[in-house]
Amino acid sequence: MLQRRHLPAALAATGILPSSTLAQGTGGPAHRMQGGGHGTMSLRDCVLTCVRSHAMCLETARYCTEQTSGHIGPGHIALLQDCAEMCQLTANSLLRRSPRHAVICNACAELCETCTKACETFPGDEQMRRCAVVCRDCAESCRDMARSPI
User: Fold this and answer.
1) Interval 30-71: pLDDT, tens
2) Nearest-angstrom CA–CA distance, 53 and 73
3) Backbone phi, then psi, for 26, in 5-degree steps?
4) Where does the signal peptide begin and end (predicted)?
5) Contact at 8 Å (CB) between 38 and 144?
6) Are 94 and 128 in contact (CB under 8 A)?
7) 101 DSSP β-pair partners
8) Mean of the pLDDT values across residues 85-114?
9) What is the pTM of this model?
10) What's the pLDDT tens digit per position in 115-136?
């Protein structure tokens, strides 16, 4: 599994996150936004949170398909896949500085919150717990970004 500290470089290497974004850091008005209750947040941080959630939801969906107990239904797998797609769309829209980013970020936050609640219905499952944590972080980040101008 990809280490969190290696994620930005890996994203730059694959073209998901332009290397110029890494070089620019979080300085300047286009990269720093005032978040809700989390202080100053960067556009890059929100993109990375969305990419992390995208990957976690896909990993969890795959995990669900490998479970033989049958306690995880197709509706939950579909929700995980929808959440993954929405997180990817949101990251892409932020990278291109979409003027409709607030609408997209709010939709992503709503879907991530739904996914969080669904994953929390499996309290003894460590994979579901991790997915819930990542989706909750993404929802919070997207809510903050939706309130911020790009």
Assistant:
1) 444 444 444 456 899 999 999 999 999 999 999 999 998 878
2) 20
3) -115, 20
4) 1-23
5) yes
6) no
7) none
8) 98
9) 0.76
10) 999 999 999 999 999 999 999 9
Q: Which amino acid is at 77?
A: I
| Distance, first Cα to last Cα, the chain | 32
Q: Other C-beta atoms within 10 Å of 13: how many?
A: 11
Helix (H) or strand (E) run with residue 122 in it: none
Dihedral angle sign, alpha carbons of residues 48, 140, 87, 33: negative
Q: Alpha helices, DSSP H only, in the chain? A: 7-14, 19-24, 43-66, 74-95, 101-119, 126-146
> Rounded to whole angstroms, how far apart are CA atoms 91 and 101?
10
Token pair 């620019």 in the structure block, residue = 24
Q: Are 79 and 118 in contact (CB under 8 A)?
A: yes
| Separation between Cα atoms, residue 112 and residue 93, nearest integer Å | 17
Specify the CATH number of the domain 34-146: 1.20.1270.360
> Contact at 8 Å (CB) between 146 and 106?
yes
User: Domains of the chain: which residue ranges?
Assistant: 34-146
